[in-house]
Specification:
Length: 380
Amino acid sequence: MPCDFLSLANIGVQQLQPYQAGKPIEELQRELGLTNIVKLASNENPLGLSDAVKSALQALLFNLTRYPDANGFYLKQALADKYTVSCQQITLGNGSNDLLELVARAFVTSDHEVILAQHAFIVYSLIIQAISAKAVVVPAKEYGHDLTAMLAAITVKTKLIFIANPNNPTGSFLAQSDLYAFLTKVPSNVLVVLDEAYFEYVTITARGNSLEWISEFANLIVSRTFSKAYGLAGLRIGYMISNTQIADILNRVRQPFNCNVLALKAAEVVLADEDFLNETVALNDRGMRDLTQFFERYSLEYIPSMGNFITVNVNSRITEQLSDKKSGDEVYQLLLQEGIIVRPITVYGLEDHLRISIGTQLENQRFKDALIKVLNLKRN
Ligand SMILES: *Cc1c(COP(=O)(O)O)cnc(C)c1O
């Protein structure tokens, strides 16, 4: 009788469900024979690579024989200069997902509890599950983090708290004053990972500077990425900033060559490209306004978002005609037929919602036209 390898896997791994990524364009092309597909499913930058990054990558393309710099010297230097931190506070990762997992692997065992919010970025749950630790999921407040309830959930077993600000997939955002007050109350031996994957999209006035808090709260780890506003999702590179002792621990646990040659260079180049970032944020602001106005015009409820995506309830306009009710998954399928890929978020417990990444003006228009068609929307 063949061996049941699942029963051999670690207890947490036995119950692990694979991460459901946004559908790749090529896959939909293959399945439906469609061309001219619009993908608004993974919060990527609709502008593509910056020109400076393209040139830098071209210059390096045939220079990949040597291992990358295991310490990422130049990128760390660039980050340290930009954010006024020391290089010793920085840990680089193969995307920030790599780093989120690293924190858990370095500090959390199956005896510990990790606190996260309902509807929080699903990668947190997967990471906790994979190491057989206990996830303590705190009910959301208006789709966002309930910091008071999260504080109340802390026990002697709590090792780590994950907070995404803004959160994905809801786009909810915590005011800096609330976050600060929260940090003053978290015991110093409980780590707080503040995941700021969408930091660059947050309006300057709302943003604050969480990095300045690290000297006051040694248990705070700030996580950011080049995958979103900087447009490097395919290259996989992100970073964490923490106190130097935590960074030292993370750097011991990580794979020495977790960041590749092209990613290190592209990140260094794009970090200096303020025009590209400004253009990205301006395009996002226009697209966000366009889509929220569109939802209002057709009485579709959406969750106000500080990110580069917006989550909308596709059933909110239905009052009497309940027979018209379509789940987010069904609407997602119908949109696929129109060549539009968005993100169903049933796994987040939001089965009436879809998450739409903000695209170019043209991509947003294609999405709006398709949604009008599949939901048979009428202006109010
Ligand atoms: C997209 C995203 C990330 C970034 O993942 P990478 O591994 O850096 O591509 C991290 N956290 C949240 C909340 C995200 O939405």
